[in-house]
Amino acid sequence: MPEASETAVTEHRYxxxxxxxxxxxxxSLDEYLAQGGGDALQIALAIPPEEIIDMVKRSGxxxxxxxxxxxxxxxASLRNDPATIKYLCCNGAEGxxxxxxxxxxxxxxxxxxxxGVAIAAYASGAKxxxxxxxxxxxxxxxxxxxxxxxxMEYGLLGPVPLELRYxxxxxxxxxxxxxxxxxxxxxxxxxxxxxYMQGILADPxxxxxxxxxxxxxxxxxxxxxxxxxxxxxxxxxxxxxxTMIFTLVGDVQRPGIYELPLGVTMNQLLYDIGGGPLxxxxxxxxxxxxxxxxxxxxxxxxxxxxxxxxxxxxxxxSASYTVYDDRTCMVRVAKVFSRFLHIESCGQxxxxxxxxxxxxRLLNKIxxxxxxxxxxxxxxxxxRRVTDGQRCYxxxxxxxxxxxxxxxxxxxxxxxxxxxxxxLPGVTDLPKLVDFHExxxxxxxxxxxPLKRSDWTYEDDPVPGASVLxxxxxxxxxxxxxxxxx
Length: 486
Ligand SMILES: Cc1cc2nc3c(=O)[nH]c(=O)nc-3n(C[C@H](O)[C@H](O)[C@H](O)COP(=O)(O)O)c2cc1C
Ligand code: SF4
What we know:
Blueprint: H1 11-14, H2 29-34, H3 39-45, H4 49-59, H5 71-80, E1 87-92, H6 101-108, H7 110-123, E2 128-134, H8 138-153, E3 162-167, H9 176-183, E4 210-214, H10 215-219, H11 221-227, H12 229-232, E5 243-250, E6 256-261, H13 266-273, E7 283-288, H14 306-311, E8 320-325, H15 330-344, H16 350-367, H17 373-385, H18 394-408, H19 410-419, E9 433-437, E10 442-446, H20 476-481, E11 483-485
Parallel strand pairs: 1-2, 1-4, 2-3, 5-8
Antiparallel strand pairs: 5-6, 7-8, 9-10, 10-11
The structure holds flavin mononucleotide and iron/sulfur cluster.
């Protein structure tokens, strides 16, 4: 149970209309304009770009894509780069397990996002801008295409051209260097250099830089311009100001998508917002996305902000949480997340693909009841090797997430070895979300995912190997056939 000293939070108390996520979808440009939409861009175009960047810096806005990098500093570095050609890219490729915040923002208010992109591109001196998202996000693609055309027609996108780009259903599409590859028409294989060194159209002769920002980050920008940096700082903490959109999935009474001030505790999220555990059960573990060490009840008093989560050895990530209760086997949780990271690894760095495969196989062996003590030691050793020569953070995710489960639940792993099997039978699905039903609060999981293989083909592809990088789930009908509700 939460500490008695913690103040109860409710979502409506904090969600100031117009902050980031509107309570219901904005259906038309007229509706957006009637609510003051478009004002932020007018304000931005009337002041020097440096002043816009200064406002964003003073707001303390930090990236909502996972790393929490200060947005104003990112824009200033692009603006100050002497290159003649630069680009601003919006990352709408949302693929972290248990995350649905960016799709909610693109659905409910595509205008706000595009206005944020227009302001960011203008402020950072970009020559062009892109919003990149998965082509399987049919609802969001439609919403953005329509909003872009409407806003272009009325001259509401500012002076920098803005294009939409679509890509495959790969986790690495969301990694910023993979995203730039997709924008340039290639597969999402992260390149060596970061965006500030190698952006769009860049080669060694022309090191044109780019900046990549998350959908939620850019959706926060119009509010900062309209209402000012202090308004943004009204909620949140000193070093993590503003709200964040939390996705809560799994064994909790009210799973859903909630905009809350940064700094609420996990207890407040789980009990006040999520309604507590399911009747007769207790929370056992919370998995943040798929990129950070897990949190257990001893951590639930931690404020959910960038620094406090780092201080207990985990991270805020994209504020997405899968909750498991006392019925869940931790070997199986480790197995589904390790498999996900292994499948999604691109293999450009051999230890990442090979060691994540080894870890997944050893976890399977333990789950099947064939494990030995040395398998546990081998898993921990592989967790240390998996990051060797890494180009991106995916292999770190495998390392820290799996190590945290093995170390915290060492007794449960040992019980599997002693009993020759699992004391907690049951199925654990990967929370790869494909839809959210706002009326019922139900998420759809991607039930086709178990068929995805480590070369990114699917077992049920009609033509073997045909759907590499552009998996077969391309139409709404196919997508519907491959999902289930949870
Ligand atoms: C494997 C991997 C997947 C990622 N997926 C996403 C994603 O889906 N969306 C996102 O915005 N950032 C994602 N990121 C983080 C991006 O690389 C990048 O840091 C972010 O888009 C920067 O935007 P921000 O500064 O606004 O947070 C991912 C990173 C890694 C390593
Ligand atoms: S660390 Fe893994 S996912 Fe990232 S580039 Fe290397 S092989 Fe690919």
